[in-house]
Amino acid sequence: MAIVAIGQLCSTASMSHNLALCQTLVKKAVDAGAKALFLPEATDYIASSPQESASLAQPMDTSPFVLGLRRAAKENTLAINVGIHVPSGNGRLVNRSCWISEKGDIEAFYDKLHLFDYGVLRESNSVEGGKVIAPPVNTVVGRVGLMICFDLRFPEMGIALKRQNAQVITYPSAFTVLTGQAHWETLLRARAIETQTYVIASAQVGAHNEKRTSYGHSMIVDPWGKVLLNLTGGGSEAEIGLVDIDLDYQQEIKNNMPLLRRTDIYPQV
Ligand SMILES: O=C(O)CNC(=O)[C@H](CS)NC(=O)CCC(=O)C(=O)O
Question: Which residues contact 198 (CB under 8 A, 6 or more apart)?
Fold first, then answer.
């Protein structure tokens, strides 16, 4: 058993402000006995335009935001999963999920494969899609598979991580209110049930600027599909939620209902 914390916040275009919020979340998580803190997609900042987003991005190794979180991880012996933006060249970005160990090292990262082009949000205007699925990373809270937000709509990715024995899968997110109300919980529960893993989905919440509001409802779902946590605070304050992860229970669910794929019949998927 290991306690994990989800941090829910409303990032703005100010990286120093967002880092300060994260530092308060780290304190709360540590005080509650958590071994790892899961922060949303784009925790470093949420900008008002693709241009502003591209102008704010910092290289991962020198970003004051990332360095600040690494220091907080090390000082508090707390692992941190966090979504950031990183320049990819030509004025474009990658949308990245980082695993920072409890020693403060970046042990793994994953660049979002699927980009969200819907309504006024056109992620592909500023972001390059990643090229690989990162293998699950061995952490203090189990073998963790890294995905991001819109990836949630692509079951193949979760299945690929299940095949590599992920015990926990993560979707740091910034869902829109409209699509969140319609799809968020259903998608998260479906991914948990079919992968038989714990699903940890920390989410941005509230109004980031005049143009953009996120749905919130950070969630943890167990490998049987049961919602263990659903943060419903409105976003005026950063908050955490806590869950005890039980990897023996996860193994039991897998043992009791083997999901053996017939890829001999459907090799296309
Ligand atoms: O813009 C940034 O800086 C960070 N990136 C995001 O917030 C991304 C792209 S706009 N948002 C989503 O993928 C929402 C997906 C969603 O809402 C759905 O699948 O329904």
Answer: 142, 167, 168, 169, 192, 220, 221, 222, 223, 245, 250
ipTM: 0.97
Pocket of ligand 1 contains residue 179 by CB under 6 Å? yes
Nearest protein CA to atom 19 of ligand 1, as residue: 150
Closest-CA residue to 221 (of 230, 208, 209, 234): 230
Residue 4 Cα distances to 60, 138, 203, 225, angstroms: 24, 15, 15, 18
- For β-strands 213-215 and 79-89, DSSP reports them as unpaired
Beta strands in 47-91 (DSSP E): 79-89
- For residue 149, the CA-to-ligand 1 centroid distance in Å is 6
Task: Provide the annotated active-site residues.
Answer: 41, 112, 149
User: Measured from the CB, is residue 204 less than 6 Å from ligand 1?
Assistant: no
Residue 267 within a domain: no
Is there a domain that residue 266 lies in? no
* Domain that residue 117 falls in: 2-256
**10-residue averages of pLDDT along the chain (269 residues):** 97 98 98 98 96 95 98 98 96 97 98 97 95 98 98 98 98 98 98 98 97 97 98 87 98 98 91
Q: What is the pTM assigned to this prediction? A: 0.98
CA distance readout (Å), 122 to 173, 243, 258? 16, 34, 39
